[in-house]
TrEMBL record:
The active site is at H261, D311. GO terms for cellular component: cytosol. Keywords: Acyltransferase, Transferase, Tricarboxylic acid cycle. It catalyses: oxaloacetate + acetyl-CoA + H2O = citrate + CoA + H(+). One of its GO terms (biological process) is tricarboxylic acid cycle. GO terms for molecular function: citrate synthase activity. This is Citrate synthase.
């Protein structure tokens, strides 16, 4: 009899990959072997994306060409814009993003190809388009005019420009750029694994990314920073002390989002940079959200021995940048598309269908076949009744 896999496939190695290395015990995250701290301090999102797709950092000329190709891909078919205009304004941005990415495949000349060169071309387009979709839908739902992309701006700067309709400050651009770098890839997380499973069937890149967005939409993957900001808003609205509010939540056995991680047993290295960003942005704007977050973080670390993860300080960082809560997870996708594409490219370059097995826990074989006239609700051994 085979050994049962742990729940949620915890620590099960499911694939080989040269894209991302994590050591949760030592708090290490690296892209292609380069430490995330160095990349966050010295690189741009465009440079990181080149690294993820090509396996090495670019030369100055290669980065310049890559950045121009990414900027030139900021185009969305008119029919897709019309679709965004007709989507109910009450739709969640993640629903709209998931559906629009699927729709874009119809208009992509390389849609049916899984060749490396075609995947690279599609990756340029989707990376540019996902950021545009989020900004365009947000303006449409608020009754504002769509802002045309500016190809002279970086990826982060152009998103803020299209979202807000005004040229962002260098501080805001750098803050978002670093946030995009930190979220670009994280090995076989739920959405990336979903993308690889879909790609392994030799389905197309758009299908894989649509599936990845569907996985990211779940609150156990992409929604924790939204919950963190709702908590901060609730505390602020009630005029309560942050620590006392959280203390009461713990007494009521309520979950505090933004703490702990399935991989990291020490501090999430991405949280280190987001904490500093939140603090720096607060100095230029409103320090309230950083101050409250820091008080909660220190209390939870002392009380529960849990570290803040990437979601905790991204909440106050995005809010200080003037970004709505329901755009937090779409911004995650704006970054993670670079990693998703890298994994789909890697999967297609050396493909084998991903087909795991399950540890069967149902009735023992051979279970008796009960004739219709002898069946009753009492004779059904499976499935078990859900717990209250």
């Amino acid at each position: 009899m085979s050994t049962a896999a742990p729940k949620g496939l915890q620590d099960v190695v499911a694939n080989e990959s040269s894209i991302c290395f994590i050591d949760g015990d030592k708090g290490i995250l690296s892209y292609r072997g380069i430490d995330i701290h160095e990349l966050a301090e010295k690189s741009s999102f465009e440079e990181i994306t080149y690294l993820l797709w090509n396996g090495a950092l670019p030369t100055a000329a290669e980065l310049n060409d890559f950045s121009h190709q990414l900027a030139a891909a900021r185009q969305i078919p008119d029919d897709v814009i019309a679709f965004l205009r007709n989507v109910p304004k009450t739709a969640s941005p993640m629903e709209v993003l998931r559906t629009t990415v699927s729709l874009l495949s119809i208009y992509d000349a390389d849609e049916k190809s899984t060749l490396h060169t075609a995947n690279i071309r599609k990756s340029f387009r989707l990376t540019a388009q996902i950021a545009m979709i989020v900004a365009i839908f947000d303006r449409i739902r608020k009754g504002k005019e769509i802002v045309k992309p500016d190809t002279s701006l970086s990826h982060a700067a152009n998103f803020l420009w299209m979202l807000n309709g005004e040229k962002p400050s260098e501080t805001a651009i750098r803050a978002l750029d670093v946030a995009l770098i930190l979220h670009a890839d994280h090995e076989l997380n739920a959405s990336t694994f979903a993308a690889r499973v879909i790609a392994a069937t030799l389905s197309d890149l758009h299908s894989a990314i649509t599936g990845a967005i569907g996985a990211l939409k779940g609150p156990l993957h992409g929604g924790a920073n939204e919950a963190v900001m709702h908590l901060l808003y609730d505390i602020d609205k009630a005029g309560e002390d942050p620590v006392e509010h959280v203390r009461k939540m713990l007494a009521n056995k309520e979950k505090i989002s933004g703490f702990g991680h399935r991989v990291y047993t020490t501090e999430d290295p991405r949280a280190t940079h987001l904490r500093k960003m939140s603090e720096d942005l607060g100095k230029d704007a409103n320090p309230k959200w950083y101050t409250m977050s820091r008080q909660i973080e220190l209390f939870i670390k002392e009380e529960k021995k849990l570290n803040a993860n990437v979601d905790f300080y991204s909440a106050s960082t995005y809010t200080t940048l003037g970004i709505d809560i329901d755009l937090f997870t779409p911004i995650f996708a704006i970054s993670r598309i670079s990693g998703w594409c890298a994994h789909v490219i890697e999967q297609h370059d050396d493909n084998r269908l991903i087909r795991p097995r399950a540890d069967y826990t149902g009735p023992a074989w051979p279970a008796p076949y009960v004739p219709m006239e002898q069946r009753s609700s009492q004779t059904k051994p499976y499935p078990p009744k859900p717990s209250a």
